[in-house]
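Q: Got a minute? One more chain.
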Amino acid sequence: MGIIIFLASRPLLETEGGVSGVGWYPVHTVAVIDNSASMAFQTEKGSRFDVTKRAVRRMIEDMSDADRMSIATTVGEPAEAPFKKLKQKDALAALERVSQTDSRGTPARVVQHALENASPQAGRRNIVVFSDFARGDWESFQIRNLKQWNPHVHLQFVRVAPEAGVEDLSLRDVKMKPWPPKAGFSFTIGARVFNRGEEKKSKVPVQLYVGEELQETIEVDLDPNGASPVSFRVNAPEKGVLYGRLELPEDNLTPTNRFYFAAGIGKRLRALVIDGDPKRGIQDSETFFVVNALSAAPLGGESPVLTHVVASYELNKVGWDEYDYVIACNLGRWPAQAKQQLRSFVEKGGGLFWATGELSSEESAGLGWLPGTTRGPVTLRPSRSLKIAQGEGAHPVFSFLGTSGGRFFSALRLARITPLEPARGGRALLELPDDTPVLVVGSVGAGRVLVWGSTCDRDWTDLAVRPVFVPFMRGVSDFLGGSRKGVSSSADAGDAFEIRAPIRRVGEAIQIRGPAQEARAIQFMEKTPGPESARADGLRLGKSGSGAAVAYYRGANRAGFYRVLTPDEKHFVAVNAPASEAKIFPVEMSTLREKFEKLDVRDLPANESDPLRSILSLIDLGALLFLALGGIFVAEAFLADRT
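A: Always. Here it is, folded:
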């Protein structure tokens, strides 16, 4: 009787290939876990990701001693080849290390890798993919070389908690103008709020936080499957760091309810102005008009630029690192040591505006590294106007001139110029009507350089006394200095983002604090890596062409603010869930069946008490066995009676 009860109460597994350890041969199972942002969708039993981990844990607990399990995720480092084949204890430990992310998944890469590397030594090989099959990750699912795979590998897709639906509020199409913002100026933040529910929602609050303080709340009404626009205006600070977020009320999918933004707002720019002909009077000097243009400020305000004028013979005393950019006016004879110091300053990221004149030429100045070569001065008869080179109207140098900046240059006159020829990657920004370059832009190392083929004063041109001169020089200043305008710091979760920092010596460290206040301190290395060499466990650091440190961080898999702390400053990087993760409608299984002839699809409800029953289609044959045994007893009784 004990044998009958045991057989009647034991479930027997019947499935193609089998996934648990019940069977005569060892099994190698690869569990592919979707840990992308959409899997954070909440069900009655936790998130879809939580439901998945419970199911995989149950699979691991059902393993036999001969079976092996591999754990792969759709977000993270590329899987090793071949997969690590883990025993039960090690598989449980590996499962605990798998965490939810706010990143976009790459299921095609992981599934293909699993199919190519299923252990050939195992008697049975199974790949079980757990996912919500959201369109954001799966609508472009493509697998290469399908016919080359081992036909004995069983591929199974498990739809996690499909009954939970897709009802969700999300922020989409967030745009900020102008962005990055300028110090002391306002900018707008616009977005659209989407309702993926079948019910109308009234007075949904959309909140704007600047820093940690709530600045404004706008309420919107949302029709079923409808959207509504919102717009906010924010004042950027004069300096420091600007950071904030847009936020919706908590709902089923939190990563799509927030949008983070951050920008670094620079200090006042510091400009070194070099007078190449200091013997002249103040108002006739090479630098008089330049300094006045850079010092211009609104009524009651201050100029965004601090200027310091030096004569050419004082350059050996200059502390170049104290300035953001240099304006050299008609600089001819100057110390040889200063020439090398200027080049080093530019290569490290400093800016240079090189203006020619009677004393200045490439040969006399010893600047054969400029992005434009110069010839001897040429007199123009009659005098000529200027035009913006074709396709360069949107260059930052002209950013203060509006949409029709060319009309300002067409009104001024040039009587004498130093003809330029773009070289070493340079290109023309301003030209004479016959296309002769007069303003050339280029890069030297990490620095930006402008070469002006005329003078800074009134000797060769009337530019210095024209209304266009002040906005033109302001554009030059912002372009060369770069730090007055805010620097946007944002990335999608899962992407590597670049960090530049003024590291002075080997051994200094950069610290990064994530949204959960987790901290990592990384020391400066000599080797310069690229973003492709950054590891998932943190940060790689190296020298840039400027001599500063460049870091590529790939540990930002959760949305929020990442505080970057260097020896001199701190700034924020705003990380958001990719826009594609808001597309949570599931892809049609018919789409996947077009790629797989025999697609095994199972549904795993969130409230399933025994996940293996849904995943493996367990059939309880206890009742059938009991009936069969009863039939045997009846037959035996019949035969005994006949006997």
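A: The mean pLDDT is 80.
Q: Perfect, thanks.
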